[in-house]
Amino acid sequence: MTWMDWKTGKMHIAPGDPTQQRWRMTIAADWGAKQIWGDETMLEALMIDSPEQVYGDLLPYIRGSDLRVVNVETVLGDQGVPLAAKGQNDKRFLIHADARTVNALTAVPFDIGCLANNHTLDMSAEGLNETIRVLRQAGIQTVGGGMSGAEAEQPLIVEAKGTRVAIINCSEGEQCRSVDGSPGAYGLELHRVQSQIARLRQTEPDAVIIVIFHGGREHTPTPPPYVVHDLRAIAEMGAHAVIAHHPHVPQGIELYNGVPIVYSMGNFVFWQTDPAFYRHAGYIVHLDWTGSTITGLEITPYQVHKDGVRLMGAKMREKFAEDMARVNKLLADPADIEAAWNAFIDHMGIEQIARSLESGAGGLRSGDLKATSRMLNLFFTPAHRELYIQAMKRVMNGTFGDSPPWAKELVHYWLHDSFIDAVNLDAE
């Protein structure tokens, strides 16, 4: 089995055809034009006035690619009203910014903006429509979100150095998912993705197919079992690469039947106030090709600050490589994947899980639409539903709290290891 070499940041996949053109595709994770969980507008202003500064010494590593893709997790512009499900006054969960922050996308420049995420409809359908308009007017193509279900799920076909590239962008979506043809994000349904890949094999037989997924449980060091199942299933359907983001922390990379699967790249330009190191550490993914043959995968790790991203120093990168190699090994054993998932549930604790259910039930009883919507989301979104079901199963069979010590230690470390201490490693 081929494993990711986290020290070098490289994975060799296959020999290339010397008669074909070499090209590189770079994919970045969550891009947010405002600090999350805060009202500061420093980052927004920087994106408008000094956009290149946001990427610091990481910028050449993105610019050096032939095709550049980013998850645009911000509503751009001043159109629309807050999504009712998130609450008119609950600004913590709403991400929208001045349309001029698109400068920080064109300055790179990013070629493609992914819209299948759980903030696509933060300012309702009008906000999504304006975001699409702003991006396209700036020369950035979009995929994964639209004003109808058909538009949201439409694959994007582009060309890089003479090779056709088909991108499918889907997500769990939460309240922002397109339902029954409504505006929103393309929600992952395996049978629909399978049909899309089969059609592309017919209509674009020489194209490479990239599936970019936004989903999974936030903050876990390893993907939950259902995510591993779904992304491996997509690889088996014929995708050439499967790339995921959303958990806000980095996770592992595997080569599954010759197909690279990236489970989470962590945050990108997406500052959060949590002091944990892995909320401020991530990596961009470079896919290397000759023609339609993928030859390798390389990552560039970085640290996330209030004013953007920066390359990791040598000592921080060494720490990062050791930690990532540790979690990566767990992907080889389904029992380890489940143990880490159970440890994350144990860390939440039965009281927090019960309080969430009680809060939603109280809102349902009183007719509170916001609380009822959040209760619905617990059942509608796999990241929540799978956690609550697994927790209740473990209560029923008497195993809640019994995850192995190594798994509990790993979860605690991923959630609480200090970012400041990691920064100071290279300051010593």
Question: What are the defining features of this structure?
Answer:
single chain; alpha/beta; Purple Acid Phosphatase, chain A, domain 2; 2 domains; 8-stranded mixed β-sheet; 6-stranded mixed β-sheet; 13 helices; 18 strands; 22% strand; globular; Capsule_synth_CapA; CW_Biosynth-Accessory; Metallo-depent_PP-like
Task: Describe the protein's architecture and organization.
The protein is of the alpha/beta class. It folds into 2 domains: 10-333, Metallo-dependent phosphatases (Purple Acid Phosphatase, chain A, domain 2); 336-421, no CATH class. 37% of the residues lie in helices and 22% in strands. It has 13 helices and 18 strands. Strands 1, 2, 3, 6, 7, 16, 17 and 18 form an 8-stranded mixed β-sheet that branches. It has a 6-stranded mixed β-sheet with strand order 9-10-12-13-15-14, covered by helices on one side. β17 (293-305) and β18 form a beta hairpin. The longest helix is centred in the last third of the chain and has 33 residues, at 334-366. The chain starts with 9 loop residues before the first strand and ends with a helix.
Taking the alpha carbons of the first and last residues, their distance comes to 38 Å
Taken as a percent bin, the fraction of beta residues is: 15-25%
If you consult CATH, what is the topology of the largest domain? Purple Acid Phosphatase, chain A, domain 2
CATH H-level superfamily of the largest domain = Metallo-dependent phosphatases
> Overall 3D geometry?
globular
Structural class: alpha/beta
